[in-house]
Structure to design on (195 residues):
């Protein structure tokens, strides 16, 4: 018992020494923004293709841009009036186009709704499936349920089989061929095969 504990201790000591060596040898090579002076940061940013401005330089540039924009607007007062008129004309045209678009969308939506309703009716008719189950002598009710499920008449054979057992239909199943459809309830199917 002593030897495995000693080996485990030696392994922990070795791992600790390795981690300590990695920490000391790699820690000095990492440069962070905290370790650099302002001049070093500026040269580093400028080397990447950016420009560094002081607060006063930034304010001067901002003020110059505002003055240039104001001077440009003073030189072209007629253009503003024309653009205002153009905007009002454009707004009227846009409103008319939007009204026309709304009408077209409403018509398209109504047509789409009618088409979907027709498709649903068609699908309901297509979904109704009929099957003629042939019940033979000695055939268990579970086999009948499996046939009905395989032909998409019922969703769950175990559920139908349990229904037959719970409502005492399983003892009343008759021999012969019985036509059933997928739109029939479990009770209707059970009564159809027990007549």
């Amino acid at each position: 018992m002593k030897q495995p504990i000693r080996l485990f201790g030696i392994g922990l000591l070795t791992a600790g020494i390795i981690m300590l060596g990695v920490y000391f040898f790699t820690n000095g090579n990492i440069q962070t923004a905290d370790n650099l002076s302002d001049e070093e940061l500026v040269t580093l940013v400028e080397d990447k293709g950016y420009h560094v401005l002081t607060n006063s330089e930034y304010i001067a540039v901002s003020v110059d841009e505002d003055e240039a924009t104001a001077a440009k607007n003073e030189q072209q007062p007629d253009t503003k009036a024309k653009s205002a008129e153009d905007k009002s004309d454009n707004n009227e045209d846009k409103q008319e186009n939007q009204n026309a678009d709304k009408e077209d969308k409403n018509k398209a939506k109504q047509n789409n709704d009618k088409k979907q309703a027709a498709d649903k009716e068609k699908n309901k008719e297509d979904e109704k499936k009929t099957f003629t189950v042939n019940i033979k002598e000695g055939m268990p009710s579970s086999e009948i349920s499996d046939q009905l499920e395989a032909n998409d008449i019922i969703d769950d054979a175990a559920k139908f089989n349990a229904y037959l057992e719970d409502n005492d239909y399983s003892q009343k199943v008759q021999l012969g061929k019985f036509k059933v459809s997928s739109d029939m309830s479990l009770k209707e199917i059970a009564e159809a095969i027990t007549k």
